[in-house]
Each structure stands twice: as structure tokens, then as C-alpha cells.
Design brief:
Blueprint (H helix, E strand, L loop, with lengths): L1 E5 L3 H12 L3 E5 L3 H8 L10 H10 L3 E4 L2 H4 L5 E4 L14 H13 L4 E5 L7 H12 L4 E5 L9 H6 L4 E5 L2 H10 L7 E4 L1 H32 L3 H9 L20 H14 L5 H24 L8 E5 L14 H11 L3 E5 L4 H7 L4 E3 L2 H5 L4 E4 L11 H7 L4 E4 L6 H6 L3 E3 L5
Parallel strand pairs: 1-2, 1-4, 2-3, 4-5, 5-6, 7-8, 9-10, 9-12, 10-11, 12-13, 13-14
Antiparallel strand pairs: 6-7
Helix pairs in contact: 1-3, 5-6, 9-11, 9-12, 11-12, 12-13
Bound molecules: nicotinamide-adenine-dinucleotide.
């Protein structure tokens, strides 16, 4: 099939490469000319395991190309995926500017019946709005559908080849048939529904996962108060098949480009439907409070005085496997610690170049041992597996004080204490 993917970010680029690999003719379209130049050269502008090879392979076999011009990329497409960003406004409300801009530009360039599929995460009223916007610009027949994306950064390629489910939301029989045909090589349960339900599935999924995280963080606080161990509580809780173990890791809370913004968007969307989503507001509030809780743990060790203390962050990206710093917990920790006068250093296996671009006011190191030399405390922020195999005896000698505050309950607490570290986790003994 002939496909155009509008927006070649984390979702769009993976979508384009995967459909190209499955034998379709795919064009990745983006308004960012620099990005298109990089992609055309077979390079990818962010870190995502396996994606570079897939992009190169599909460019070389002639199935994938890139372009920055709607007039070239749109007319021949049978199916267009909108994968542009939906970042939040400063007040947390959703901003659909990029989606609407893309829809207007698509409408001006379609020449024959086209199926326009929204993959970006958008509120459930967006399908109707796109229909209106496009109808105003063209008389050419088109359908709107929604295929929300569930990939996870860090394993996006594997997730796209082996999705947990394929949600197809549309009111059109023709659109449904086209999307079933396109997804035919992918093995996964299909959920066929209307556009609004498809979009609500995506919001509800992220809201539910965020809820699990805030729930376990609340239980962790209780563990700290009574001397219980959240690791054991999570283990015992997660073995209940009705609950499951995933997303029950206490720590610094959720970040990233999706959970925070989607939770805020769902709260805003609900308010527009006259529903006060109080419950989700609490989930968000608990998540925000985890940063202060973590900082209090550091203060407790140094009896409140962090001014002039050198603290080293291990990990900057919002989770392991990516260099994405959008809404990363590290940024909030850095902001608060700089305000109270701490000297900060940081290291990350892949996110140092992205962090340099943000000018965080933090000394950045590729090498964790260098980052930890002379530090008063190690702050574990992102649970990169490489941090499990560091030489902690060597690190203890390099550090000024043997203090570890583990924001993810990730490092081996027992062993670290045994070699003389003062170790604090979130809800752990
Ligand atoms: N990143 C994830 O893990 C993930 C997972 C599931 C869903 N989503 C959702 O998918 C959407 C895209 O997310 P992302 O992380 O890929 O975003 P991103 O910021 O990485 O990429 C968006 C791309 O869209 C391009 N763009 C913006 N306006 C455009 C226009 N008018 N025409 C063409 N290109 C345009 C930008 O230049 C950018 O390259 C969001 O709605 C997000 O919530 C993201």
C-alpha cells in the first residue's frame, strides 16, 4: 500500500519504518527540514534501539523515503497517518495545533479518496474536529480513523512488530477494511470501535498505568512510616493475577512525553464534558510530590544542609532505553536542588548530548566514575541496567561521602550497605 506518515518523531519514524519493512511504499513527511535531511542520509536524530538499522534497510530496499513537502508526499497516499506531537500548553491543557495544521495541509493536497488516520494521542473529540477542518478545504472524499499508538520508547521497534493490541476506530466500513488489510501481517488482538472510543482507550491506558505508579508510591510512603518493605509489598501484590506486577515500582514517579501530558489532557477534556476528574488530579498530585519526598530523603542524610554539597545524578532520561528528556524526573530534581544551592553533576549512557542542548546548569559526564569523583552523594534517577554492574567498591573510594539515595529502588541495597554505603530507597528498609 502507499502510505504517508506525517511527523517523523518517535512514533512517526517507527511507524514509517515498520510499515515499509512490511512491504509498503512509505513516505515520512516532516516540516523539520534538518530532520528530513538527517533521515534521508539514513541517520536517526534520537536514540532508539534497532531503529537505525530498520530505517537504513528500508531506505535501501526502496520502500522508505522522506520528504518535507506536502504537495509531493500527500497526493499518491492511500493512507495517511498523522503522528505529529501533541505537547501540553503551559497550563497543562492539551494543544492540538500541530494536528490541526497537519490536517489543513493534508486537505489542500489530497487528490483522490484518502484515509486519514490519527495516531497522535488526542482527546476523543478530535475525530469530529478533523472531519470539519478537512471538509472546509476539500470536496474530495476522505475518511477519518484513529489508530492510537501504544509503543514504548526504548523498545519501540519490538513493540510495533509485536503490539499488545491493534485499535482501529472508525465509522467507515471502507476505512476499517483498509486498516485491517494494512495490519494483516501483525499478530495481535484487534479492537474495532468508533473514533472517540479508540482515542479514549489510549488516554485510559496511560491514566491507568499512571494510577498504578501513584498508588504504589502512596503505599511506599506508608512503608517508610511503619518500617515495612515496598519491594516485598509490590512482589506480593503483583503476584495477584488480577493486579499484575508491572508499574508497581515505587520511586520518583512517572515522567516522559506521554504520561504527564496525557493525564493533564484527560483532566482538561473531562472538565470540558462537565466532569471533575478529581481522582486523576490526585494521581498527578501524588506524582509531583514524589520529587519533594526524594529531596527530603537527601536532606535527612545531610541534616538539612545541601548548600554547596556535590550531588551526582545517575541517569537523566525519563526511563532507560531512550535519550528522551521530555518531562524527565531528572529535570525536576535538578531544578529543585539547584534552587537550594547544591552543586550538581550528572551522567547518562545515552542522554548526555540531549542534556547539553538543554543547558541544565549541571556538569555532565559520560563516565560515571568521573561524575562520582568527590561527590557527597549518588542520586539514582534512571534505572539503566549498566548501573547495576558498576564497581561500587571503587566508587566508594572515589566519593567524598558514601551516600546513595536510590530514586528507583534499583540498586542492590543489601550489598551496598554491606560495603559501607549509607543507602536510602523509597519505602525500602
Ligand atoms: N513518544 C512515545 O513514546 C509515544 C507513544 C505513544 C503515543 N505517542 C503520541 O504520538 C504523538 C507523537 O509523539 P512523538 O513522541 O513521536 O513526537 P515527536 O515530538 O518526537 O515528533 C513529532 C514530529 O512531528 C513533526 N511535526 C510537527 N508539526 C508537523 C506538521 N504540521 N507537519 C509535519 N510534521 C510535523 C515535528 O517536526 C516532529 O518531528 C504524540 O501525540 C504522542 O503523545 C507518543
Amino acid at each position: 500500500m502507499n502510505i504517508t506518515v506525517v511527523g517523523t518523531g518517535y512514533v512517526g519514524l517507527v511507524t514509517a519504518a515498520v510499515f515499509a519493512h512490511l512491504g509498503n511504499q512509505v513516505c515520512g513527511l516532516d516540516i523539520d527540514r534538518k530532520k528530513i535531511k538527517t533521515l534521508t542520509a539514513g541517520k536517526i536524530p534520537f536514540y532508539e534501539p534497532g531503529l537505525q538499522d530498520l530505517v537504513k534497510k528500508t531506505i535501501n530496499n526502496g520502500n522508505l523515503k522522506f520528504c518535507d513537502d506536502y504537495k509531493t508526499a500527500i497526493p499518491q497516499a492511500e493512507i495517511i497517518f498523522i503522528c505529529v506531537g501533541t505537547p501540553p500548553k503551559i497550563n497543562g491543557d492539551y494543544d492540538l495545533k500541530y494536528v490541526f495544521d497537519a490536517a489543513k495541509a493534508i486537505a489542500k493536497s489530497i487528490k483522490k479518496y484518502t484515509l486519514i488516520v490519527i495516531k497522535s494521542t488526542v482527546p476523543p473529540s478530535t475525530g469530529g474536529k478533523l472531519q470539519e477542518i478537512i471538509k472546509k478545504q476539500t470536496r474530495i472524499p476522505f475518511d477519518i480513523a484513529s489508530c492510537p499508538e501504544f509503543l514504548r520508547e526504548g523498545c519501540a521497534v519490538a513493540d510495533s512488530f509485536h503490539p499488545s493490541r491493534i485499535v482501529i476506530g472508525t465509522g467507515s466500513w471502507k476505512a476499517k477494511e483498509l486498516l485491517l488489510k494494512l495490519h494483516q501481517p501483525l499478530e495481535a488482538p484487534r479492537v474495532l470501535c468508533d473514533v472517540a472510543s479508540a482515542q479514549l482507550i489510549k488516554y485510559a491506558a496511560n491514566a491507568f498505568l499512571a494510577t498504578k505508579i501513584s498508588f504504589i508510591n502512596s503505599i511506599a510512603l506508608l512503608c517508610d512510616k511503619i518500617g515495612a518493605d515496598i519491594l516485598k509489598v509490590s512482589e506480593g501484590l503483583g503476584l495477584d493475577p488480577r493486579i499484575g506486577r508491572s508499574f508497581l515500582n515505587a520511586g520518583l514517579g512517572y515522567g516522559g512525553s506521554c504520561f504527564p501530558k496525557d493525564i493533564w489532557a484527560l483532566i482538561s477534556f473531562a472538565a470540558r464534558q462537565d466532569y471533575d476528574f478529581d481522582f486523576l488530579k490526585k494521581v498527578d498530585q501524588i506524582n509531583k510530590a514524589q520529587i519533594d519526598y526524594f529531596i527530603q530523603k537527601i536532606k535527612d542524610v545531610f541534616v538539612g544542609n545541601l548548600k554547596g554539597k556535590t550531588l551526582t545524578l545517575l541517569g537523566l532520561s525519563f526511563k532507560p532505553g531512550t535519550d528522551d528528556l521530555r518531562e524527565a524526573r531528572s529535570l525536576l530534581v535538578i531544578d529543585k536542588l539547584l534552587k537550594i544551592g547544591a552543586k550538581l553533576r550528572a551522567t547518562d549512557p545515552v542522554a548526555i548530548p540531549a542534556a547539553r542542548r538543554l543547558k541544565l546548569g549541571v556538569e555532565l559526564f559520560q563516565n560515571p566514575y568521573e561524575a562520582l569523583t568527590g561527590a557527597h552523594a549518588l542520586l539514582l534517577i534512571t534505572e539503566w541496567s549498566a548501573y547495576l554492574t558498576l564497581d561500587y567498591l571503587k566508587i566508594k573510594k572515589l566519593m567524598r561521602d558514601p551516600v546513595i539515595i536510590d530514586g528507583r529502588n534499583f540498586l542492590p541495597a543489601y550489598e551496598l550497605k554491606k560495603i559501607g554505603f549509607i543507602y536510602r530507597g523509597i519505602g525500602t528498609k
